[in-house]
Amino acid sequence: MGKRVGIEVSLAIAEAAKMADVDVIAAYPITPQTHIVEHMAEIVANGDLDAEYIPVESEHSAMSACLGSSATGARTFTATAGQGLELMHEVLYVASAMRLPIVMAVANRALSSPLNVWGDQSDLMAVRDVGWIQIICENGQEAFDHTICSFRIAEDNRVLLPVMVHCDGFYLTHVVEPIEFPTQEEVTNFIPKFKYPLPLDTSKPVSMGCFAPTFIYTEAKKAQEVNILNSKKIIQEHWDAFGKAFGRYYHPVESYRTEGAKTLLLTLGSFGETAMTAVDKMRDEGKSVGLLKLRLWRPFPYQELRKAVGNAENLIVVDRALSFGGCGGPAYSEVRSALYSEKNHPKVVGFVAGLGGRDITVTEFENMVKRAPQIANTGAENEYEMFGVRE
Amino acid sequence: MVKITINGRQVEAKENAKVLEVCRTNNFIIETVCAHESVSPYGNCRMCVVEITTKDGKNRVVPSCISKVEEGLDVKTNSEKVIAERKLSIQKLMARAPKSEVIKELAKKYGVDSTPLPLEDHQNCVLCSLCTRVCAEVVGVNAISKINRSTDPGALPYTVNFDACIACGSCAEICPTGAISLEDKDDTRTMAWPYQKHDFKMTKCKTCSRFYAPTKQLEYISGKSGQPMEFFAKCIDDR
Amino acid sequence: MDNIGVYAARVAPKFDGLAPGHRACIGCGEALAVRIAMKAMGPNIIIANATGCMEVISSQLPATGWDVPWIHTLFENNSAVASGIESALKVLERKGKVPARGTKVVAMGGDGATSDIGFQALSGALERGHDFLYLMFDNEAYMNTGIQRSSATPWGASTTTSPAGKKSIGQKTQKKNMAAIVAAHEIPYVATACPSYPFDMMEKVKKGLAVNGPAFINVFSVCPTGWRSAVDLSVRLGRLAVQTGVFPLYEVVNGKYKITVEPSPMRPVQDYLKLQGRFRHLSENDVKEIQERTIHEYNMLKARTTC
């Protein structure tokens, strides 16, 4: 049995990577990810982990070095945030298309300009289509658990895809939480030894990242798509195994007090916990409100979401990112389109809130629930509303 | 074609191919001193030894450069026996060329730090005979020979016939320890072998005035190809 | 070793890491350079290739021309990918997860990938001291995309984005001196090479691969398509570039400069320029300017070898 430790979540993520016995870490510092990589560097410097820490000169090179390292067959970990994730952007596509099982913690942060280092999910939504498995964490324990479990998912030969573990910057990364640490033995038993099927190896030369003209590119992309779609049930398989081993079970969509709820809130990430408090309060007041939390962002859990929504009348999606000039926040658009073909789908209402580190309070969730029926019946001017804008 | 196993991996090989050749085409790395693909094998340095087990169970350590493949042969390129044998070979090479950087590097790789054998420094020559082989088989002038070689201290490892030599530099290029050198200065090419040295005259290009090749080499090529010497009055860039 | 040929060439390694049948243009100096480099390096290497001609001509799916482990990811990141490979090999060998084979890591890229877009990644990898060899195949413009100028394009050359016209001489800036910039990183080995001098080049590649730490070689790669020169002149153009002093061959070993092929007597630059369409528009005065600058730069280099 492990023990319960009070620790900053960033450090816990680094400890998780250490327990996973990673071989190579290539990272570039950026707020609010710094504590993760600082601790990682410290662990390596103290000899607590036999690994190579590559202090690269940019995030673009961080992810590029991860490509090389993973392709050589090394278990590879990195972390970034906001602008860093954007600088990596083109490299992220390569990692997934070449099926390199890199695990990356992302301390979600707002994007410039104006400069803002605090948490929101603009960076996360901008890398929606890069082909990575993306998991959104709600609290420190989840961040720790998913960092460990993601190595097992990524390196499964049926999956072989990179995984992003998203944690809200500051709201998660910089808070101290009580976290259940398993023993090293338990973790070692849980993650099988990494053996990349076709690494860069001089005894058996392979060419990776070849040039694909039109006649074969579509087929390559189709194969990639089938691969990530198929990964969904394997992800659940590993989450179930994790539950069995450590007693904490995870699902693509988590439901909280949704029984018979007419109105459902849907959140991604750390604000789920505030929303839970709000739901408790409203339920105590006799209101028929429940909460859905989207944990698996890619591959998108269509069926699970449809099932979880059930017969609710209104569904309120709270986005912490904007899609400028689009038809609503990114999560809102996706959720709405996922439900569109359902016969009895609820009215879906979108709010964008909590940008650049601004808090979303219990009262604000209550106000969203109050405002939602109006929008649902009359429609908002722009399909969605930005919530809590000071005028 | 025959099927053989190298370090547990099955590979196909041409009949009568040498084991070393097959290992190398399949990307198994074996470092050698006296083996070179352009000349016939010699089996002298014994760095290429491998452990083989035949189909009927005979097991031995053999130099792979002169051993032929056969159906069902099992080859180990890095077994304990092989490493032990190579360490011995390195000690012999160290005794012959104690100052050679190449041999020192090899010794470092195998963790050999000294040799119990008496040192007999022949100016970096390890007696691998690559120079004699290349001169006879590739160039065809037979200028380097083993004549007068003996166990006497101070005896020449090889004798160079300066009349036959055309200063083409093939021996310098192929020498694994850098014991043979070539230097061009103005109208002279100086070739130096262990204990021997000779200057050769260079031909000057009529157009650009560069000394571009040893005159004897041009004469030799002219003789072989039938091109008149006037053809070689200009360098390749001005022809 | 620059002046041996005919016979010594026959003892060059027969290993062809880049298989025949690739899609390079006729007379491609870069394909020749890669083949020569591969002969010197042998099969115990892993290559990280930048996007460019070399990647496109050699790796079109479903075939590959490479007989060594080879990876291409993006344009500007081959140094970073090489860093990752080198670090991975180091730790995997240390942990006993792969056998220690002494495998070396090589990064390859064109002049655009190296001196422009991948400059930062290269500088980072050099500064971190990874044990790898960087080969910059310098054909003096972005040839793969259609002969656009790069920072390695020489003054006066006409390219598609620095065209010569009534108001322009073509490329208005001088060629970026990559070898000197890399040497400023104080790495153990820096050199310039040219496949027209194959023995000199093979020796340098071997040295670069053997040193412990980063090594960099700027390989002059004649491009008949981009330079508008006859396809049978590629090897000669390389030799003329060296003999005119336009592209001197030298090495910098632990900071010490040494010219490996003396261009003596030095030919006039016109010998080199007149064979190329990209310089056809130059006036006598322009050529004179190039001549003066070439001699000036060669003397500067020469001065470095004596200090």
Describe the protein's architecture and organization:
The complex is a heterotrimer of chains A (391), B (239) and C (307). With 391 residues, chain A is an alpha/beta fold. Helices cover 41% and strands 19% of the residues of chain A. Chain A folds into 2 domains: 3-246, Thiamin diphosphate (ThDP)-binding fold, Pyr/PP domains (Rossmann fold); 255-386, Rossmann fold (3-Layer(aba) Sandwich). Chain A has a 7-stranded mixed β-sheet with strand order 3-2-4-5-7-6-13, with helices on both faces. Chain A is globular. By secondary structure, chain B is an alpha+beta fold. Chain B has 2 domains: 2-109, Ubiquitin-like (UB roll) (Roll), CATH 3.10.20.740; 130-233, no CATH class. Helix content of chain B is 25%, strand content 21%. Chain B is built from 6 helices and 11 strands. In chain B, helix 2 (80-96) packs antiparallel against helix 3 (101-109). Chain C contains 11 helices and 10 strands. Chains in contact: A-B, A-C, B-C. Chains A and C meet through strand 3, helix 3, helix 5 and strand 9 of A and strand 1, strand 2, helix 3 and helix 5 of C.
How would you summarize this macromolecular structure in one to three sentences?
With 391 residues, chain A is of the alpha/beta class. Chain A is 41% helix and 19% strand.
Features:
heterotrimer; A: 391 residues; alpha/beta; Rossmann fold; 7-stranded mixed sheet; 6-stranded mixed sheet; 13 helices; 16 strands; 41% helix; globular; B: 239 residues; alpha+beta; 5-stranded mixed sheet
Q: Mean of the pLDDT scores of chain B?
A: 91
Helix/strand-derived category of chain A reads alpha/beta
Question: What is the CATH topology of the largest domain in chain B?
Answer: Ubiquitin-like (UB roll)
Question: What is the terminal separation of chain A in angstroms?
Answer: 53 Å
Question: How big a fraction of the residues of chain A is strand?
Answer: 15-25%
Work out the count of structural domains of chain B: 2
- In spatial order, strands of the major sheet of chain A run 3-2-4-5-7-6-13
State the secondary-structure class of chain B. Answer: alpha+beta
What is the CATH homology-level superfamily of the largest domain in chain A?
Thiamin diphosphate (ThDP)-binding fold, Pyr/PP domains
Mean pLDDT level of chain A:
96
Distance between the termini of chain B: 48 Å
- Largest sheet: number of strands, sense, barrel closure of chain B: 5 strands, mixed
CATH topology of the largest domain in chain A: Rossmann fold
Provide the CATH architecture of the largest domain in chain A: 3-Layer(aba) Sandwich
User: What count of helical segments of chain B does DSSP give?
Assistant: 6
Question: How many DSSP H or I helices of chain A?
Answer: 13
